[in-house]
Amino acid sequence: MARIFPRSRRRWLLLFSVVLLILLVPKVRRALQVNYNYWVADGGRWHAYSGPPKYVALRRAVAALPQHDLSLPFPEGKTGRYVKFSNHVGYLGWNNCFNEVLMNAHLAYISGRGYVFNEYEWAPEHYQWPKEKWVNFDPHTPLSAIVSGPVAGGPFEPGDPAPRAISEHWFEVPAVAQATGSEVLAHWQQVLRDAPERCVEIIRESADDDPFPQIFDLGLFGGPRVLTLWDSFSRSPISRLLDASPIARTAIDNNKNLFLPNGPRPPHPAPRKPFERVLAIHLRRGDYEGHCRWIAYLNSAFYSWNLFPHLPDRFVPEPDAPGKDERFLARCWPDVEGIVRKAAEARRDYLAHAKTLPGTGHESEPMLDVMYVLTNEKSAWLEELKKALRRDGWTVATSQDLVLDAEQRDVSMAVDMEIATTRRGWSSFTSNIVYQRLLDKRDPITIRFT
Prior knowledge:
This protein is mainly α. The protein folds into two domains: 28-39 and 51-176, no CATH class; 236-355 and 366-446, Rossmann fold. The chain has helices at 7-24, 26-41, 56-63, 94-110, 168-176, 181-194, 218-221, 230-235, 237-240, 246-254, 288-298, 324-332, 336-354, 380-391, 406-410, 412-419, 428-439; strands spanning 82-83, 114-117, 120-121, 140-141, 166-167, 278-283, 370-375, 395-398. The chain has a three-stranded parallel sheet with strand order 1-2-5, with helices on both faces. It has a three-stranded parallel sheet with strand order 6-7-8, with helices on both faces. α10 (246-254) crosses α16 (412-419), α11 packs across α12 (324-332) and α13 (336-354) runs parallel beside α14. It is globular. 22% of the residues are buried. Residues 1-31 form the signal peptide. Keywords: Signal.
């Protein structure tokens, strides 16, 4: 006979199983420790950490080296000549690796190219920290923590015209800096048009040659070079004829009741269609705090179409400004107070702008009083946010309130995207929403970022 446990007992059994799994399975315990060390211990809100040095300040100094500047004249900058030795040895003793580092740097120097230096990858048996305290699965240390000089990005003697060494992370920037998005598109258009073969497959050569072998890769979408594609891409039937799937549309139709305002009757005629009164906000939570700290470390700007200069709420990274990380988190990981304040600002600005448009007020006056929160958050924090938004006059619905069948739940990201109208600029999800709103000729004032 089946035995059904009370809910509270089942919860305790589940908790006990998880704890037992963590204690008894070394790989699970190790993964949790690495994740904690990497994302939280370094600059997070918890500081109970006594592992290897994180070299945060040193890595920032490396990222800010003066030669990491595309505007520099030849032989540096975007027209510079560099060499990266991806075949270098790793995971051996330091002195075995150091011999090769010095000789590779010398070869780069006499060849008139800037040397691309890497962090030292430790041989596990030589690393001085116990494995349970490792920050990464493969521990490594910045080269400039071990040595200094031109090999680690230091200057040459005055009058020496040799290009200075750059870091492996910066190498990806000048390596692709000459190709705008439109140039990449034109190159591959020519390749495919001229290819005599009837059927063509584009394949990667090897991960060693290029870890991101896509034609349109993250390096392109993560910076302003992608914007040069807009004119061609926005006029393409691929963009113009893009639409939501019938499954997504049916899901929205079945949940329209969530978007009906339940506040007091407005003092003036208001739009009757509920979606004309909706402000949607994309709030990715869960694992996103660690990602926000990572992009703060990288000094990343917004993503893809979110970078258009005519959109409000632009974000310009300031790598050396005091309080940089706090400003990143305020935009990327806003708290409840910040979200409520931004929503009120977006509503005020939109209504003020809408009143200046021709035809406004003939049948109804514009209004924003329904908030839709696109989010993966399921904790008590979401309830706290909903209460705060309701106190500010919003009718609130969230991704978690949608009633979806199995097919609709499987494509819930498409449902959210079809509902959405705005939000946070480091997200590729938000960028695709911005893309569709711009295609629809929506006013930029209706596209806001936290």
